């Protein structure tokens, strides 16, 4: 008989099942609020400060971005606030890394489909562009509640006309 395999040699680094459920809902709410452009829901799940690392997609890293600044960036008309852009952020597999009792990193497979229309009436498609990535998401407990505290996308590849989807954050 072979000896029992120890799956995780450091059990204190495991997240609880309750945290797993809460964090799973949190990442779903992050993705779905982007896709629904439900900015009130997104605002309700984010931490007071976030780490946003867009260096792998040609932008910069913000270590302590205020929640209001994050919301202004995400809802900007040159980004997801553009009413002619529809998205669907599909999550694949996820694994969780417990950093401490108040910090967890989620590693998420992600396919983000983007469709841009000619007008905000959403009648005629102008272009499509999709991204395939893994996202490192940061989660922090704030006053005993898990919050989304930032992200670091690692794009594997983009397809179609993804580089034309967003107008920019000028």
From TrEMBL:
Residues 15-167 form the Scytalone dehydratase-like domain. The active site is at 89, 114. CDD domains: NTF2_like (cd00531). Substrate binds at residues 34, 54, 135. One of its GO terms (biological process) is melanin metabolic process. Keywords: Lyase. Coiled coil: none annotated. The keyword Isomerase does not apply. The keyword DNA-binding does not apply. GO terms for molecular function: scytalone dehydratase activity. Belongs to the scytalone dehydratase family. This is Scytalone dehydratase-like domain-containing protein. It comes from Penicillium canariense.
């Amino acid at each position: 008989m072979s000896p029992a395999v120890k799956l995780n040699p450091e059990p204190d680094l495991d997240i609880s099942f309750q945290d797993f459920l809460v964090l799973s809902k949190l990442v779903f709410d992050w993705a779905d609020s982007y896709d629904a452009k439900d900015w009130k829901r997104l605002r309700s799940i984010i931490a007071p400060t976030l780490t946003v690392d867009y260096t792998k997609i040609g932008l910069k890293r913000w270590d302590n971005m205020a929640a209001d600044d994050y919301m202004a960036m995400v809802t900007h008309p040159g980004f997801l606030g553009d009413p002619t852009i529809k998205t669907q952020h599909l999550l694949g597999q996820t694994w969780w890394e417990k950093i401490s009792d108040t910090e967890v990193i989620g590693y998420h497979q992600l396919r983000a489909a983007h469709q841009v229309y000619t007008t905000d009436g959403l009648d005629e498609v102008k272009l499509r562009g999709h991204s395939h990535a893994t996202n490192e998401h940061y989660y922090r407990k704030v006053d005993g509640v898990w919050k989304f505290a930032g992200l670091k996308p690692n794009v594997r590849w983009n397809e179609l006309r993804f580089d034309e989807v967003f107008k920019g954050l000028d």
